[in-house]
Amino acid sequence: MHFFGNCNRNGRAINGLKPCCLIIREIMKKLVTALLGLLSFWNVYAFEIPKDTLQDRQVAGLKKEEIDEIDRMLVASYLNHFCFSSDPSIQNAFDYPADLIPTFPEELTRERMKVLDRESPFDLVYNENVRDFIALYAERRRDVTAKVLGLSQLYFPLIEDALAKYNIPLELKYLAIVESALNPTAISRAGAAGLWQFMPGTGKMYGLDITSYQDERFDPIKETEAACKYLRFLYNTFGDWNLALAAYNSGPGNVNKAIRRANGRKDFWAIKQFLPKETQGYVPAFIAVNYIMNYSTEHNIFAKKASMSYFETDTIHVTGRVDFEVVSKSINLPIEEITYLNGTYKLKEIPDNGKKHYLMLPVEKVGDFLAHEKEIYLASEIKKPEPEPVIADSASADGGAGQTTKVIWEDQWKTHKVKKGETLKGVATKYGVTSSDIKKWNKLKSSSLKAGQNLKVKVKVKKTITIPKVTEPADSTSTTPKVNPPVVDSKPKPDPTPPKPAAPKEEYVYYTVKSGDSLSSIASKNHVSVDSIVKLNKGLSPNKIQIGQKIKIKKK
């Protein structure tokens, strides 16, 4: 009995039965497929990758411009600021050794990406660019990825709430990893700040308060709200989430230019070559983060939880000036933790400027603050950044006339050696100065710092000086001529001519141009004429107003 038909040299059936060669080929194909699946399940393909190989792959696969800023965020000292610990209760389903770095056939990674793509509004493709970024997160920076997984448990719930509010795909929570590695205090070389890396102008446009005292880009909740508004605006503009991501990184103008150069094609991969270098790697990095956050377990990466949980905190409404150093001493909490939780306040203090302010503290320290609240306000008010000179009398050692001691504050130059991962803002905060001051003192053209770099910093140093006290001579026969007091006429004099009342001061308001605004619509909203606006704003062109532009308007 024949199970297979006979076949000729071309593999065609002779007797109508299926050729044996084709049947054997199909069986072998199925066996190979099953074997691949079995091998991937048991991780036969997993092996330890030498570090030099990782380095070579990194250099060869990714352009410096594409990786530089992303990698800098991943190695920031912030990720070493807190204690991270692994959860021993997590069971390794694949029975990997703890130090094993698994790798998989590209076809398997491609299939995993297809699964993610089917459930996402994003075009989650797998190509060489995406592969190299996966290698970055899964191999070269795997310890950082574990810490970011831990931080995601802290920040993703608040991010997801905001995304849902604005009807934005939940996958965009991964964008915060690409932007800042979930570091709420991150600052880029260009001056972007916070979880979502807002530039000052864009932050103000979307309602963030940025002053000398306060920068709400460092407030995770408020900046996430602003990021959602901006991402929704970008999607409405381009109608494509990948293009919205590219515009978020490089600005809508650069994306529009790239579309024009690509003959009007509205596809990221079609316009990629016309975008800035750093933006070319931006979308691939986002896709790679999507993959690694969903398949971290398969890559033997498990969350390392930060010792401080964002949701183990509470906020307190403060009604006066609050100095972080005073709070630290009053409630026995390291000032570094207070600064981390309240990064929006640049000078380590909450100002008393009539606005509503909140202090965030660990839950267990809230009661301590409330118990010492009055004393904290009083001590903070006394402890001014520039204290007035203190003068005190003291008797001289020989029992003679007293002397005066005076506390003064002198400027003194110090040299700071930059450590690996330090930022300009971090150095400025350490010495109680501003980033712009350090740039000016050191003639820096950018905000980027290099490990080992020496910086000149001017600080205030308290110094006590002794001044001999001058006293009047007790001798009554002083030669100083006696001056009689002036004679005062007791008769009242008539009031002088009252001054003319000053002309009433004209009041103005400033209107911020929004999307869809025109000069006529702005004039109509404020019940003024277009001519009056043009007269008040020199150089204003009615046909060239820009979103975010401030326009002076006479108040009615």
Task: Describe the model.
With 556 residues, the chain is of the alpha+beta class. It folds into 5 domains: 1-41; 51-306, Lysozyme (Orthogonal Bundle); 313-382, no CATH class; 402-466, LysM domain (Membrane-bound Lytic Murein Transglycosylase D, Chain A, Roll); 508-554, Roll (Membrane-bound Lytic Murein Transglycosylase D, Chain A), CATH 3.10.350.10. The protein contains 22 helices and 11 strands. The protein has helices at 20-41, 51-61, 64-74, 106-118, 128-140, 142-165, 175-180, 200-205, 220-238, 241-250, 252-261, 268-271, 277-280, 282-294, 324-331, 335-341, 363-371, 373-382, 424-431, 435-442, 519-525, 530-536, and strands spanning 84-86, 304-306, 313-318, 322-323, 349-350, 357-362, 391-394, 403-417, 454-468, 508-512, 550-554. A 3-stranded antiparallel β-sheet has the order 7-8-9, with helices on one face. The chain has a two-stranded antiparallel ribbon with strand order 1-2.
Rg is: 34 Å
Tell me, what is the CATH class of the largest domain?
Mainly Alpha
What would CATH call the architecture of the largest domain? Orthogonal Bundle
The CA-CA distance between the termini, in Å, is 104 Å
Provide the number of structural domains: 5
- Give the oligomeric state: single chain
How many alpha or pi helices? Answer: 22
Q: Average pLDDT across residues?
A: 76
Overall 3D shape? globular
Classification by helices and strands: alpha+beta
The largest pleated sheet is described as: 3 strands, antiparallel
What is CATH's topology name of the largest domain?
A: Lysozyme
Low-confidence stretches: 1-19, 29-60, 387-401, 470-483, 486-491
In terms of DSSP E residues, the strand content is 5-15%
